[in-house]
Amino acid sequence: MSDIDSQDDSNMSADDAEKPSKDGHIGEQSVSGPGGTPKTSLLEARDPDAFDKPTLITTRSRLAKDFRFRVMCILTACASVLILVFLLGSILGAGIPTLSWTLLTGTPEPEPENAGMWPALMGTLWVCTMCALITLPLGIGTAILIEEFTPRNRIARQVLALIQLNITNLAGVPSVVYGILGLTAFVSMFSLFDNSDNADGPSMEVGAVYYDQFSNVASDPFIDTGDTEAEERYFLFPVETRDAPSTVPKTGMLAYENSEGGLKEVEIIAIDPFADDAPTDADALSRTIDSTSDPGRISEKQWYYLRLPFGRGVVAGALTLMLVILPVIIISTQESLRAVPGTLRAGALGLGATPWQVVWNVTLPSAIPGIMTGSILAMSRAIGETAPILIIAGIVYIRSAPQHLMDDYTVMPLQIYNWTSRPQEEFHNIAAGGIVILLAILLTFNAVAVLIRHRMQNKLN
Amino acid sequence: MSSTITSPENKAGSQLRTQHDPDSQMATVHMRTDKPHTEPAEKDATAIVMEDLSSWYGSFQALKSISLNVRKNKVTAFIGPSGCGKSTLLRWINRMNDTIHSARATGNLHLGDLDLLASTTDVVDLRRKVGIVFQKPNPFPKSIFDNVAFGPRLHMKLRRNELLDIVEWSLRKAAVWDEVKDRLHAPALGLSGGQQQRLCIARTIAVGPEVLLMDEPCSALDPGSTLAIEELMNELRDQYTIVIVTHNMQQASRCSDETAFFFEGKLIEMNDTQSIFTNPANQKTEDYISGRFG
């Protein structure tokens, strides 16, 4: 060891002294080419022995280079950590004092002290859950097709290559562009369908039940009820579609009434105020309807209520976010599928597995940790995405959590954006509080996913 | 074939030698000749017939008009320098070359009545009949039990105890049962290289193949594991037709009945292993086995 060290030292002093001339000769040598006779005067002037004795790079200079590089790495790492600490510190400093139960569970109010982000929180949950349910099967399926079921046919392979090129390019498109695409493709669906907000057009919808609502005659000023007083009640008649003609009530018909235990059936009495007299019995009177009055058409929507076009609802938002994260999920899934050793596939094929059995039993289980990492990153991006939602949803003043897939909604980043753009200082502070909540949700989400991934990885190895 | 897997005679007869004394490596050849052959009637039956088989990767011709027969219940060794086409030939026998888009073949290749090159051949069923063991041990990242049960689960609906029987029989047959019986549900990747390769052999025979293809099964293993696998081939030959590709000529001479020598995509010579190694007909064969090239 000591022998080598001393050799290095002696070499280094010579090395330093000769450095400029040597640099020149190395450059010239590569120009004249190996084995070629040197022609320039500069080369002729050089010591011919240098050809045969390659100069050693000393251990010390290599270690110095190593040290410099390590210091550089530490500095860059420190810089990024410092920036993160500063950002987090300022957000936490402003946000934590404003954290309160009201901020979490309240609705957006004009007064900052009463304002909360519950609708935005629920909106984020609805949109991102929908988005994950749509995007993960679609993205992972596409990646499996491209990676595992590459066709033998040349034209089909070229089509797949074209799709691949598109996916790679789409990953770099700014998300606001996807917002505009989502507006055209999902919100208005290229105006292919009549807007169902417009009552006189046909609409395709599922998950909604329509009722005609009548009030009883208790508050009707034109009907003489004598001395009998009746409490105000409302009765519902189910109708087939939203555009069906209004129900004409007749005595003896059964109507629904909202009561504590849900809908209750009630037999009603219908009278013509110009022809008939109102019953004088209090119970009968409370079930009496003016048959000439116009009902109100109301609807009860299930959580899966869907109609075409999607409008500015949760589904349109989820589909637009799908556009944003689909390329990311496809590419990361492809990468993790590629990382599965081909010998495993060959092993399974050699045992007589069909291509699908290979994918399902061997390739996918091995690739799942990688696929999950990509999906977590993509979903985190979806949770934080603002620009496309701003274009798609438009409205930010939403006072209730979404009730069904077509409901108006807002998401947390949008609510935060809304608060920061107000002039009052207090709103800026609760915006910081909102950011803290958003960060907490993101971190929880990631932690759970990392935990699941670890479990799976341990199971595999 | 599933009946052979579960039959009790097989289980009883699968007590394999596990001693690893240094002499047995030398003695293998003699021990084999001493052993009485169980089915003399089928001694010369042909399992695989190749006639004028040529194969290309794109425009590169890897095999040039190969004609040979592989005999049933024998160990046939393919030897030759790297790139001579022996692995390509092996991979045509169970159509593993289908995974390579540019690979194609002409000529005749039959396993019994089955035309192996026909596009109508059910490759999934073919690979159940013709198992393959690769150069590098490639157990799935699952438990030892699940590795062996993988193939049977693909092809058969089995109850838990039937599956257990198959797994035990296969592991015994592959001479790895005693080492893993107490940790069947431990990850297969925790085994040593030699154990992993024997596990892969167990996995392959668990499906009940007729033919076992071995693509340099010992080139990634230490001498001890190599010996264990060579002994295993001796045990298995009674039930399977074995084709082994090897770079190791000692291995070919130790454990094969017939040897085929390939060079630059052509079959140079095929004969009894003893004749090939003691009295080769072709000068190239002699040069290769005596180590003058390759």
Give short descriptive properties of this protein.
heterodimer, A: about 450 residues, mainly alpha, MetI-like fold, 2 domains, three-stranded antiparallel beta sheet, two-stranded antiparallel ribbon, 14 helices, about 55% helix, about 10% strand, elongated, disordered N terminus, B: about 290 residues, alpha/beta, six-stranded mixed beta sheet, four-stranded antiparallel beta sheet, 13 helices, 10 strands, about 40% helix, globular
Description:
The complex is a heterodimer of chains A (461) and B (294). Chain A is mainly α. Chain A is 56% helix and 11% strand. Chain A folds into two domains: 96-188 and 310-460, MetI-like fold (Orthogonal Bundle); 203-308, no CATH class. Chain A has 14 helices and seven strands. Chain A has a three-stranded antiparallel beta sheet, with no helix packed on it. A two-stranded antiparallel ribbon of chain A has the order 3-4. In chain A, strands 5-6 form a two-stranded parallel ribbon. In chain A, strand 5, helix 8 and strand 6 form a beta-alpha-beta unit. The two termini of chain A are 41 Å apart. The model of chain A is unreliable at 1-38 (pLDDT under 50). Chain B is an alpha/beta fold and 294 residues long. Chain B has helices at residues 2-6, 8-12, 23-34, 86-93, 123-129, 144-155, 160-173, 177-180, 193-205, 223-236, 249-255, 273-278, 283-289; strands at 46-57, 60-71, 75-79, 103-111, 114-115, 130-133, 211-215, 241-245, 258-263, 266-272. In chain B, helix 6 runs parallel beside helix 9 and helix 7 (160-173) packs across helix 9. The radius of gyration of chain B is 19 Å and the shape is globular. Chain B starts with a helix and ends in a 5-residue tail after the last helix. In chain B, 45% of the residues are buried. The A-B interface holds A 150, 152, 157, 341, 343-354, 357, 361-362, 365-366, 460-461 and B 94, 96, 99, 101, 124-128, 131-132, 134, 136, 138-142, 150-151, 154-155, 187, 189, 200, 203-204, 207.
